[in-house]
Input
Amino acid sequence: MTHGYYLCGQKQFHNKFQAILYAASNHTEIKFCFNDAIFDQYNWEIEPVQTLNQLYARRAVELREQYDHLVLHFSGGYDSGNILETFVKNNIPIDEIYIRGSTSTSVIDINCTRSENAYAEVELIAKPLAEYVKSNYMPHVKITLQDTVDHVLKGWNNPGNWIDTLDISDFSPSTIVKKTYDKLNPDYRKLTEAGKKVGHIVGMEKPDMYYANGKYYTRFLDKFSLLHTPYRDDEVPMHIEPFYWAPTCAEMIIKQCHTIKKHITQHGLDPEKIFKFQGTEKHHFLGKIVYDRSFPMPFYPDKGTTEVRTTDYFFFKDQHADYYLNWKKTIDHIRAILPTQWVHDSLASGVVGMYSQSYCIGK
Output
């Protein structure tokens, strides 16, 4: 499974901050590579003949055959909801539905859809849907609910050597969860040590398209790809599987892009305006086009667009705590040593994003 990487001359980096500093000191350019060698083999202007549902099913079968213990990280939203429905519709079993987040900070109110209350989705949509699937389709599936607040605080409470290694994926303090599933939930490490291959399915991501010179294009943003599948150099393997953006998913992505393009042209929409959608508006627009969802979605929180997310607010309550001071020292150090063109004015926006090469979808 490739996680994407940065290429500086002939040298590869998985860590963006290390790549930027190397490029600056060696006067080289940086290229973000994401499955290039595989995706280049396809003509993205030709629409695959299979339906999206057939391509989703093919990916589900591939994952089922590859892993002994298959875990779906589930929020109940568009992406993970479509994944769960794909397994259900095609009678493909998964072993565990894993629902996590800073749930102890949430207000369980279906009308409170502010982005800082995003993890209310655990009680209001993810848990009920998981239980519905277990009762009606997958009686043997395990449902795991886990609050991540203490894990995040304890993780940063250890000063570590972040300043020396720059070994963080982005500026959100909660991102460390995605590199430490088997520490957050030791059962995964036990399964791995027992010889089981554990696959963590994450719902990454809808196509990122744009329109230029009369043609449609798609590309991959490093902030999405490396955030969801952070690189970990560890003696215990941890397999994170993006359902939609894996190397084997080129035809699926191409089909999604053509489906979006046809929807825009058939409805006489302005593609330049459509592709400026952000946050919740973007997720609703794309999700309704590329997914044939039948499970209800009674709660949908606003989607923030900043790197330091509003759901992290619990972390900033005590700015004298060791965990906060360790995080702040690390982030301040990174922002100070990076070349100015990579640093946003707002800390919450993180570091300037980088796109992969583009693929033309046609007119």
In short: Residues 44-362 form one domain.
